[in-house]
Amino acid sequence: MGPQVTPETFIAYKVLEVFPRGRRVVITCHSPQAPPPVTYSLWGSQGTEVAKKAVKTGEPASFSINITLKSRPDLLAYSCQAASPRGVHSASTKLQMYWELWTKPVSQLQANFTLLDKASGPRVEISCQVSSGSPPITYSLVGKDGSVHTQQRPNYGQPANFSFALTNTSNWLQCQAENDISVQSSPFKMVPPGQLPQGAIVVLTGSLTSIAAVTSWLLGPALWTRL
Predict the structure, then answer these.
(1) Does domain 10-101 have CATH number 2.60.40.10?
(2) Where, by residue number, does the polypeptide cross the bilayer (predicted)?
(3) What does the pLDDT read at residue 67?
């Protein structure tokens, strides 16, 4: 006999009633390949079991619950797990209910530009992050002509980190954060050409050689480090 395939468990929801700061929803759990009877468990965030229901047929299990606005969107995540005569099956993907309730514009965008002179050549590293906002949040590096150089969509609460080699010409760049509600941009910064600034100070530390300099570029103070 070949290896047994673990039945998949699916999760979905439907809004029944809308309140100012909450929703009444029905969440359905279904493992169509699991032999009945099937016991479905609905799990909330942080490993909390919200409800459990046994189904003697091959039909889905339905759970009617009230959800309210939480302080963080990850507190509005639900998943299903099914157990049948074959044993406990794999959990479903997480159902992110913040799409219904977590509606905040992006705010307080911070963008940090750092210049590095590594052995492979000069590079610029840019870190972008907002203090709050409804996920998913897309971060973009945008030029003054409006062109988008690159984009990232990190996990909630994590910054977007960009790194690239300097070119022979200077460029003006800004970080832009966008979700389904709003867009926010940082001030433009000038990324200088790919050359070491004058007056670099060489510091030897063990086997590491560090070159640090404060430049007068419009980037403000920049740290150059060569390993």
Answers:
(1) yes
(2) 199-219
(3) 84
Burial of residue 80, with CB atoms counted within 10 A of its CB: 0-12 exposed, 13-18 middle, 19 or more buried: buried
Of 172, 175, 183, 160, nearest to 217 by C-alpha is 172
To 5 degrees, how large is the angle CA 144–CA 147–CA 153?
A: 110
Residue type, 226: R
What is the DSSP secondary structure assignment for residue 89, as one 8-state letter? P
Residue ranges, the chain, pLDDT below 70: 1-7, 20, 70-74, 99-102, 194-227
Class of domain 110-212: mainly beta
User: Is 105 within 8 Å of 148 (Cβ atoms)?
Assistant: no
**Cβ pair 168, 177 in contact under 8 A:** no
16-25: b or e for each residue (b if 16 or more CB lie within 10 Å)? eeeeeeebeb
Name residue, tokens 């032999």. Answer: 35
Q: Which long-range contacts (CB under 8 A, 24 or more apart) does 14-17 make?
A: 15/100, 16/64
